[in-house]
Amino acid sequence: MTDQLTHDSCNPHLSVVIEACAGSGKTWLLVSRIVRLLLSGAKPREILAITFTRKAAQEMRGRLDEVLLMLANCPENELIDELVARGLSVSDAKALVPRARVLFEEVLSDPYPLCIETFHGWFSHLLKGAPLNSGVPQGLKLRDDFKRLQDECLEDWWTSLPTRDKSPVRAAYELLVRELKAKNANDLLVGSKGFLTVKAEWLSYISECQKKGVDPLRAVIEQSDLLDIQDPLKTALDDPGNLGDLMSLASHLENGGKRDVGYSRAINDGLKKHSHQYDLTEVANALRPAFLTGDYVFLAQLSASTELKKSLKKLPNPGQLEQQINKTRQDWAQVLLDHYRWVADHRAHVIHQAWVTIGVDMLAHYQAKKELLRVQDFSDLEAYTAKLMLNSDVANYLQARLDAKYKHLLIDEFQDTNPQQWQILLSWLNAYGEGEDKPSVFLVGDPKQSIYRFRRADVRLFNEAKTYLETHFNAKFHRFNATRRNSPAVLAAVNAVFQLPDVPETYPFEEQTRNPHAKNAYGDGEVFCLPLIEAPTITQHPNRNALINPYVDSTKESKAKQSYAEALQVAQHIHKIKSEKNASWGDFLILLRSRTHLSSIEKAFRDSGIPCDSPRQGGLLKTLEAEDLVALLSVLITPTDDLSLAQVLRSPIYAFSDEQLMQLTLAKLSDQHHSYWQLMSHAENQYHHIYKDILSWVDLAKRLPVHDLLDHIYAQTELRLRYAQSAPPLQKDQVLSNLDAFLALALDLDGGRYPSLPRFIAELKKIKRGAEEESPDEGESVVEEDSDDESAASDARVRVLTIHAAKGLESRFVILMNTNTNRSGRDNVGVLMSWLPGDQGPIHMSPIFSNKPKDPARQELRDREEAIAEIENWNLLYVALTRAKEAVYISGLANKGDQPIASKSWYDRLDRAGVKPLNELNDVVVNKAKSISDAINSHEFFDFKVTWQGESSTLAPFDEELITPEQQKVIDLGVAFHAIMEHVMRMGIQNAQDLPSEAELVSWLNIDSHLVSDARQCAMNVLSSDFANDFFFSADIKNSWEELDIASSDGRLLRIDRLVELPNQLLILDYKLSIPDVTHDLYEKYQLQMATYRQCVAKLRPDKEVKSYLLSGKGELLEMNGPH
Q1: CA–CA gap between residue 318 and residue 723 (Å, rounded)
Q2: In terms of Cα–Cα distance, which of 1073, 995, 1065, 1055 is closest to 1034?
Q3: How far apart are CA 921 and CA 175, in angstroms?
């Protein structure tokens, strides 16, 4: 690091912009500037330091505390050296020694601490200080589980979609589904890159549209030159001359070669469809093979073939005819291409309109529901802060508060800033006049490490901010490309790769050097490419019996085995390096672009005896032990669920072998039992003790919260011990941690207060369906329970991380896996946004989706995005390579065919950069695996010792009847009948004739097609009955509720099918497939049920008489207002 750079960076009175490469000491520089600010007399509360993750903020605080503590305690000569290293002269350093000694105590004791925050943390502080008249909601709780919050808030929006009030939104949604299919349509709205995720940007876009008088519904039209003209195909077909030329072309092609004859048939097919007035789309699709490829580009040869030329020589003027044929084919190829481009623009326009219509309505509902819940998400922080800072009425007030509070601003990793964050900063900085006492600004980053485009980070903002600060704050700019981290070999590889001819011209790379003051603990280092792994051949069993040999997807199976083989090779190499270079497991870092092949890597490492820490985010509910526990809880609800019970029996809880489970299945079939549960219920059955265990837990489940129930099961079955004994040695700690994490989850979910076991399991399923990063993490495993040394724990395991997760980290050895691919992995749908640096908001927002051909209207915008995406792909490679201190190894899967190396893949780039292959690997895996297993098996396992268990109640009645297939069909029909009644009542139909068709019900409610006819008829019988008007369509109905949840006096959750409010009465309606005779047992049960409903409703609404009725699917009515 140059003396001038250090001097300027640490000068408290200068504003500075630093662009520095990976490993150059940016964090040291930033912390050093804070130290110099404090030494110069700045108060901690006057300093605002912004970074991009909570972890980075914590690390910065930790680094600062370490430096201040060191300055307080080190010998004076060392103290002076430290101050000189931070840009002070020797004389100034000596003068500041007393001040440096007390800084640590002053900072710790100051009641207003130094503010080191993420952008969102800072925004949260700003919002808390907003005036009450600002229009921004106050006192909202921040929720970081965006996907779950979104699902909660939108549940009733989806329910209301079929109603009449939502008919325009529903029509728009149906259009999206027709055009894009349901998954893509939903992803465009509520997916990870959907409308709601760009809410803050959308609000800025709307603001810009209002300023410019632009209609956001016309975003595609504004970009298109085709939407104001007629379909080019119709224009051509309406022209007799053009049509005649096309007919003549078809006639001539009939006399050409085989391909020409095929083209002629295609043209004649199109002409025939045109003459029969088919839709232009069908005409175009018929004509296309004669002119365009499947990718909608001109055929390679549109000129006359050799065979056609021969046939033309038999006619007068063959040269002139050939020219006419060639021109006609070129002209009609252009017509068809223009037609498809015209259609693509129109399609993009209607999809955009539908997307905006739905998104705006959905967003309004989402925001209103969050305010009712008194919560907000991270995008709200940005949106509300932007509203405040860019609103002139409130901005002056906030800017004055910021001016009074902060005198020094520091921003780390600025390349990860998004446009909204920059505009908020800019609104503060722009408020200063030329003569005012402006704050000092220190901005540091590296455009080559910008890899968060999916979070809307824009690397172009770095240059924008640099120019702005140079112009308005007289900032000094320094570029520094000397690293302290990378060995000479790694550095040479980085320089070679980023000087390849296919690096984009605008890529901000300059040759990097090694800092001469850096320690060289590992020598020259090395970079090698490991051999590519060939794909194995997968063969299906001849005459396969599906019951014995399951179908195998040969492509997926081949890729899985290939990935496993790659991981085995990497494991072998790790053993070799560890042995030769006296390394620890923690010296190795495996980097992946995605987690696609993570399970193969984990398995291969386990098989090779390598302990590893892989990404655990959101993975708890996907672990086998968690799935076993969910299966157990499901059995406690439905013991006749054979699939769940089989999983419990095979789990370590009962440790059934395959043979035991097969014997149980055969016994069930031979004795004609409906389920394992029924079979084990007999006292003479050898597994009757399992029946008694589960029966006692069924009884406990009715009385205990889920956490307490699980705690009892853990203790009674010695569950942790059983799993520890059965887990592979290298997984033992992780399995036990996951069991503890699941128990903690039962306590954390709603404070452990779930009213019933079914609701708890339903919540787990909802979590599992949500975003992976919001699901509960796997437990934190440690190698030794009594170890407090975090570094010792990390040294005991190889780290496996995505490149994004590894940013900011370093390791002695880095291995890049699965590098021989050039696929971008881009999503099928997303949001195309153009927000140019310097603009206050986006100038364009519209949905993107898979389409051929692409709409030409937005091609320039897409090209711009793809150019940024290409640069980010290079950035990812740069970040991956520069994590290594000593060595980098490149690994990948070979392509099939003659070219095993994929063009433009990372493996290809390293190969072209001169990185040599490593062909010799010693087979040392087996011995290493054995020694590790022996070491871990010798580790003693400790668990709680329970001295008293009590006795399980085996007399607890189990009140669930065994369900036959016929009974299950009746149950399913009843569920479908209820679903239809709820759906049509929420729709607000006016009579029975408005009942949706069977196809619509299947589509909207996902009802089994075998049930929908009978279920619809049940609903029709009810809605066309004599009592239908009074209960469903009467003008006297003041209000009504469908599927209303209500709590009984003993805390049970009940659900009323329909509650109707009349002027003087409340009517409870309960749907049944049929009404039982008064002598039937069900009659008494229904009377009790209705009495309970009436009692609950009457307690809530004592002002009105409450009555209850049974309505059957046969159109029958029974009033139930008896003494119960």
Answers
A1: 86
A2: 1065
A3: 58
Q: Of 747, 748, 654, which Cα lies nearest the Cα of 709?
A: 747
Distance, in Å, from the CA atom of 145 to the CA atom of 1013, rounded to the nearest integer, reads 40
Secondary structure (3-state) at 736: helix
Report the 10 Å Cβ neighbour count for 817. Answer: 24
Q: H-type helices in 110-219, by residue range? A: 119-128, 146-160, 167-180, 182-190, 199-212
Specify whether the CB–CB gap between 349 and 225 falls below 8 A.
no
Paired strand residues for 117: 50
Residue (of 286, 293, 299) closest to 246 by Cα position: 286
pLDDT higher than threshold 60 for residue 157:
yes
| Dist CA 306 CA 873 (whole Å) | 46
What's the token pair of residue 199?
């809410």
**What is the average pLDDT across 1036-1050?**
86
pLDDT at 353: 96
Q: Count Cβ atoms within 10 A of the Cβ of residue 1061 and give its class: 0-12 exposed, 13-18 middle, 19 or more buried.
A: middle
Summarised one tens digit per residue, pLDDT across range 487-544 is 999 999 999 999 999 999 989 899 999 988 888 888 899 999 999 999 888 776 777 6
Q: Give tens-digit pLDDT for 368-414.
A: 999 888 899 989 999 988 888 877 566 676 777 776 788 999 999 99
Sign (positive/negative) of CA torsion 14, 16, 20, 23? positive
> Which token pair is 2?
């140059």
Q: Model confidence over 293-323: pLDDT tens digits? A: 999 999 999 999 999 999 998 889 989 999 9
24, 183, 514, 558, 882 from 482: Cα distances, Å: 6, 48, 5, 44, 12
DSSP structure string for 12-37: TT--EEEEE-TTS-HHHHHHHHHHHH
Q: Is 521 helix (H, G, I), strand (E, B) or coil?
A: coil
- The b-or-e profile of 1040-1052 (16+ CB within 10 A means b, else e) is bebbeebeeeeee
Cα atoms found within 13 Å of the Cα of residue 1061, Cβ hemisphere only: 12
Tens digit of each residue's pLDDT (9 = 90 or more) over 624-637: 899 999 999 999 98
Per the prediction, the chain carries an average pLDDT of: 86
For 309-340, give one letter per residue: b (16+ CB within 10 A) or e. Answer: bebbeeeeeeeebbebbeebbebbbebbbbbb
Please tell me the predicted confidence (pLDDT) of residue 843.
93
Task: For helices 392-405 and 378-389, give the axis angle rounded to 10 degrees.
Answer: 100
519 by DSSP, 3-state: which? coil
Q: What are phi and psi of 32, to 5 degrees?
A: -65, -35
Q: Is 442 exposed, middle or buried (0-12, 13-18, 19+ CB in 10 A)?
A: buried
Question: b/e for 398-425, b at 16 or more Cβ within 10 A?
Answer: bbeebbeebbbbbbbbbbbbbbbbbbbb
Bridge partner list, 847? 831
Question: Encoding tokens for residue 21?
Answer: 């490469």
| pTM for the full predicted model | 0.79
Other CB atoms within a 10 A radius of the CB of residue 1002 amount to: 16
Query: In whole angstroms, how large is the CA radius of gyration of the chain?
Result: 35
Contact between residue 623 and residue 651 where contact means Cβ atoms under 8 Å apart: no
Residue 787 has pLDDT above 80, yes or no: no
Helix or strand (DSSP H, E) at 734: helix 732-748
pLDDT tens profile 104-145: 999 988 888 899 999 999 998 888 877 766 777 888 888 888
Helix (H) or strand (E) holding 599: helix 598-607
Distances (CA, A) of 12 to 35, 690, 909: 10, 73, 43
User: How far separated are the first and last CA of the chain, in Å rounded?
Assistant: 87
Task: Round to whole Å and give the CA distance between 975 and 998.
Answer: 16
